[in-house]
Design a protein that fits this description.
The chain has 2 domains: 199 residues, TIM Barrel (Alpha-Beta Barrel), CATH 3.20.20; 111 residues, Lyase, Ornithine Decarboxylase, Chain A, domain 1. It is 27% helix and 23% strand. The strands form 3 sheets. Strands 2, 3, 4, 5, 6, 7, 8, 9 and 10 form a 9-stranded parallel β-sheet that branches. The chain is elongated. The mean pLDDT is 95. Bound molecules: pyridoxal-5'-phosphate. Pyridoxal-5'-phosphate binds next to helix 8 and strand 10.
């Protein structure tokens, strides 16, 4: 089966870059949702711990349970709040406050302009009152930026709104230990991080920035590479066709091999419509099957992706999607 190599050195390198920016390992919460952006949840939790990180962010309780031994604090973005000494749960709406278990540790998400999740700024006082009434343990107040990776002033406008939120929270609550955080990778690359309790570091840790080049302020290196193994080799005569629909027609005599990667592994079939070039510069010949692709190669192992951003551009998407689609069953090995 296809396999994934996780480059530990590059992961540590990226984390060091962000640690330099934030000033400490304590001010980084590694985002491990969606199978750690396809890198493997538990494996990346282990490596994060080895590097010295103590905080993580996931979406579900199931993910949190898997990585619990590796971290001191885990923030959950989805799922209902229950009481646990390590977990804090994001409150995305007033209904989330009502549904939370008494005594649960929570973080209130405020909508400062993205209009996806979080309570509105107008609901803030009401929400804080409800949290108190429900006897929830409010640990933090957070927001998410909609345009951190877009070259515009929107990030600054949202940060202004978040400053207003902070003011309101601090004027109402006597507890001065509330943490405030609003930065994803792109925000952390663009702005100083010193007014954040911690940053929620996702894509940057895995080696990518979707920001315009002028924001290439840190030197980030891809952590994941995708490999496939040879199944069979054959010789084609000129004019012979390959794969479903016979869409590839050999322009000359050639030797091709089948490799064990397909859309069943999360490799998008849409890459068929323009010939997709592998990391080694080989065209995928004809259609992607459920478990196979064909390449003009006889090598036992071929590298399909060494830079998810380069691959993503070829198929009209972003690095996040290429990586998170990769199947959970693909073997991940640390190199
Ligand atoms: C996924 C996510 C992040 C991480 O974003 P990156 O762009 O990958 O750094 C941060 N905060 C929230 C709320 C998220 O959902």
């Amino acid at each position: 089966m296809a396999f994934i190599k996780i480059d530990k050195k590059n992961f540590f390198h990226n984390l060091s870059q962000f640690t330099k920016k934030t000033g400490s390992k304590k001010s980084i919460a590694i985002v491990l949702k969606d199978n750690a952006y396809g890198h493997g949840l538990e494996l990346m939790a282990q490596l994060s711990q080895e590097f010295g990180l103590t905080q993580a962010v996931v979406r579900t309780l199931k993910e949190a349970q898997t990585i619990k031994p590796y971290f001191q604090e885990i923030l959950l973005l989805g799922d209902k709040a229950i009481v646990d000494e390590k977990y804090s749960f994001t409150l995305n709406s007033l209904a989330d406050i009502i549904n939370a278990k008494k005594g649960a540790t929570v973080e209130l998400k405020v909508d400062t302009g993205m209009h996806r999740n979080g309570i509105s700024m107008e609901e803030l006082e009401k929400a804080l009152k409800l949290i108190k009434e429900k006897e929830l343990n409010l640990k933090g107040v957070m927001t998410h930026n909609r345009s951190a990776d877009v070259l515009s002033s929107e990030l600054f406008w949202q940060q202004k709104n978040f400053e207003k939120v902070k003011k309101t929270v601090c004027s109402i609550l006597s507890n001065k230990n509330i943490c405030f955080h609003s930065f994803n990778s792109a925000s952390a690359l663009r702005l100083p991080c010193d007014n954040q309790s911690f940053i929620r570091l996702g894509i940057g840790a895995y080696g990518y920035s979707e920001l315009p080049n002028i924001y290439d302020v840190l030197d980030l290196k891809p952590v994941l590479s995708l490999w496939a193994k040879k199944i069979a080799t054959r010789n084609l005569k000129k004019g012979e066709r390959v794969g479903y629909g016979g869409t590839f027609i050999a322009p000359k005599e050639m030797t091709i091999s089948t490799y064990d990667l397909g859309y069943g592994d999360g490799w998008m079939r849409s890459s068929t419509y323009k010939p997709f070039k592998t990391a080694e510069g080989l065209d995928i010949l004809g259609r992607v099957s459920m478990d196979y692709i064909s390449l003009e190669s006889t090598k036992d192992e071929v590298c399909i992706v060494s830079d998810a951003q380069v691959s993503a551009k070829q198929i009209g998407t972003i690095s996040y999607e290429v990586m998170t689609l990769l199947g959970k069953n693909i073997r991940r090995i640390i190199v």
